[in-house]
Amino acid sequence: MKKTILFFALAAGLLIAKENKAQSIDTALIQTYTAFDSAKTYPQLLFASNQFKLIAKQKPDDWVTNYYAAWSLALVSFREPDSKKKDPMLDEADNFYSKIELLDSTNDEIAVLGALLANARLSVAPQQRHGKYGEIASKYYAQAKKINPKNPRIYYLQGTSLYYTPKLFGGGAEKALPLLQKADTLFANDSKDIRKPHWGKNADEQMIKDSKDKK
Asked: Of the candidates 156, 137, 145, which has an alpha carbon nearest to the alpha carbon of residue 199?
């Protein structure tokens, strides 16, 4: 009887320890996400991205930790002032992304992240890379829409891409606005759970404002 009680006590202790570890990872993700989302300068963004990378290395088998490491690196690359550093940064992002891309083919957020990474690569040299990375992004958009057509980040990224595409090539603020507005209506359904990516709302609102000003 005592052995049975001891066994269940040990099992319960291990379960609690496992739950506490999961909670500590989530807490770290929440704190780092808050820091990244509120960052005003490039160094602040870079610091938060480095924190995401450390969390991913602590929990390498968790898709969410790898997701945020890759996501933050993609966003930091857009702000990186030295163009020569962008591709190495995105190579690092791809290393995190490769861990999760094949992990779950039914996760629309993973597909959206693939599109974001393709857009980041394209932005390094738009004229030279439009064909290759434009097609890769389109593939990921189609994949994400097939899984969840109500994901607002699909339309936010598509609208942003169109906004920065010259009118001569079918882009511009007027073409971007409907997609950005569609994203805006869908952001209202986003969860605030750190394990359910919900980034993009504030940036989308700013893009809508900028698009209206340019019309």
From this structure: 156
Q: What is the pLDDT of residues 19-51, one digit of tens each?
A: 445 558 999 999 999 999 999 999 999 999 999
CA 91/CA 41 separation, integer angstroms = 23
How far is 38 from 159, CA to CA, in rounded Å?
Answer: 23
Q: Closest Cα partner for 114 from 83, 93, 88, 87?
A: 93
- 132-181 pLDDT, tens digit per residue, is 999 999 999 999 999 999 999 999 999 999 999 989 888 999 999 999 99
- Helix 83-101 vs helix 42-58: crossing angle, to nearest 10: 30
How far is Cα 153 from Cα 141, in angstroms, rounded to an integer? 10
Rounded to whole angstroms, what are the CA distances from 122 to 13, 56, 77, 133, 134? 50, 25, 11, 6, 7
State pTM to two decimals: 0.88
